[in-house]
């Protein structure tokens, strides 16, 4: 009899990577997952963010967490741990990735900044053992230990409750912090996000809070999360009247895709002309007469 195969583990860094891809690529930041740390395999379960410019733009900073948004490095490595706690093995692994990536890409310390992002909050004794101390940013730690000073620790549960931290705090281990992050993101600005980003956030929200995903012993992929979010959004929209559906959209978004004549449908001439000054109307009529004479 064949033994049952063990369920595949969820590659949590890929889910965070998909969120970053939908969130950051439109702003000009390159996002990679499963990055080769050397010229040859193996690949590492880390994220790589690449800046095209020496400084972050304001739009980019609005989507990056504390610590990352403050670095001037152009290559940002992120070792993300969702189920595993910060320990000696995790730190050694992160330091190895940092060392091998710099050597393989022939980059200096000023070019690369490596972050260890942890969903779980380690004990105070663990932080003390590795020389971690909190910076002026809540949840962002650096180390007094010379061997670990190249790695910045980010504790998702402790990051400040600000909009730019909310994106990554969707992966915090504490339910309270995770819920607060989603509430921040699901505000009136949610409708301005791309459909792909909306679906992914909706998928994460329902996977964790409706489906009890944290307790499910199955692999979940970024595409699975996207499908969940799309189905939930379609189900919600199918029960909303067209008037209510348009209420959350900006005027330009409501009219997107409509032909000019369709945009003006239902409006009387006096209502249309009321939006223009007499000078603008006269100037347009003169221009129209010249065009008709040709």
CATH topological fold name of the largest domain = Trna Endonuclease, Chain: A, domain 1
Pairing-aware structural class of the strands and helices?
alpha/beta
N-to-C span: 88 Å
SS field, number of helical segments: 13
**Main beta sheet, described?**
7 strands, mixed
- The 3D shape can be described as elongated
Taking all residues together, what is the mean pLDDT? 83
In total, the number of domains comes to: 3
Strand order of the largest sheet: 1-2-3-4-7-6-5
State the total count of DSSP E strands: 7
State the low-pLDDT regions, or none.
none
**Residue fraction in strands:** 5-15%
Query: What Rg do the Cα atoms give?
Result: 25 Å
CATH class membership of the largest domain: Alpha Beta
Provide the CATH architecture of the largest domain: 3-Layer(aba) Sandwich
Helix coverage percent of residues?
40-55%
Summarize the helix and strand pattern as letters: HEEHEHEHEEEHHHHHHHHH
